Amino acid sequence: LGWPLVVRELLDALTLPMTPDRRNPLRVLLVEDMSSLAGLYAAVLNRHGMVTEEITRPSQTLEAIERFRPDLILMDLYMPECDGQALARIIRQQRLMDGIPIIFLTMEKRPHMQLDALALGVDGYLTKPVSSEELVVTVSTRASRYRQLRSYISTDSLTGLLNHSHLFARLEYEFARAQRERRPLSMVMLDLDHFKRVNDSYGHQAGDEVLVSLSRFLRERLRRSDLIGRYGGEEFAIVLPGMGLEQATRLLDDLREAFARLEQVSPRGRFRQTFSAGVCSSDGVWDVVALVQRADSMLYQAKAAGRNGVAS
Ligand code: GH3
Ligand code: MG
Ligand code: MG
Ligand code: MG
Ligand code: MG
């Protein structure tokens, strides 16, 4: 009697994680061999503003994780191909989804089975039949907490771009996918020209603002599927899946020209900032290390050719 009431109060209290972000809803991957059941859970979660993807076969899980990028995985414990515990162990080995919450949904009530699951690093256990309220509260709070933590550890705090290590993890995935699907992929290393002078003449704060303005500029002009990272200092890396060398070079040259025209405003005066970029494609490249090296050497050429240019 009391439980649904308490939950309803909880729902009201937890306004922060419960507020559905319409532009960026929480994403839940459902792994459940009974599709009718999965559909039911999905309907409940969808009604509360979450986006779901249902898979009925455990073997589809890793592919679905990479493609769908869930904030939480809701998983049946007993499935024909592979049990939930084994699957959870495999998911825990994926670097890209480090620490993603996994919640088991099952009829299993034996405590030792539940303990085994928790020992695996699984985040929780919901016992069927589960109420909608319990499902929604458990899933949304954990999913939003994970999303928040993930954004802290994967983004650069000044620019909001991907940080070095996360960019590499994502690049590895995009590179492997491009090879597998025989699709082109281009990689860009970009470095601000004579940036030291900006700090010297206009102050470190003005320098920071240039970094933020370039980041915004790139985000506005690139596709959602492109990766933009702060490689370090005043150096950025861009990954353009599906784009060949020629198109990528042209794109970067357009961006270079447009950015150079922008006026940077600082308390100590106005100025313009240029960048140089090295572009390469994944054609004939064996791994991401070689890809980055190639882009780097192209960047070096662009600098040597006088800066404010693109080399490929
Ligand atoms: P080049 O055209 O050869 O790249 O010249 P540069 O001056 O840009 O290159 P250099 O490597 O000599 O200096 C990079 C400068 O970038 C030095 C450093 O103070 C500045 N920088 C790196 N990270 C930041 C940052 O986060 N904020 C600010 N304001 N400056 C930064
Ligand atoms: Mg089952
Ligand atoms: Mg520089
Ligand atoms: Mg330099
Ligand atoms: Mg540099």
UniProtKB/TrEMBL annotation:
Boundaries of every GGDEF domain copy: 183-312
EC assignment: 2.7.7.65
GO molecular function, one term: diguanylate cyclase activity
4-aspartylphosphate found at: 76
Domain Response regulatory: 27-143
Coiled coil segments of this chain: none
Transferase recorded as keyword: yes
Reaction catalyzed: 2 GTP = 3',3'-c-di-GMP + 2 diphosphate
Enzyme class of the recorded protein, top EC level: transferase
Top-rank taxon: Bacteria
Keywords: Nucleotidyltransferase, Phosphoprotein, Transferase
Keyword check for Nucleotidyltransferase: yes
Protein name in the entry: diguanylate cyclase
Organism (species): Vogesella facilis
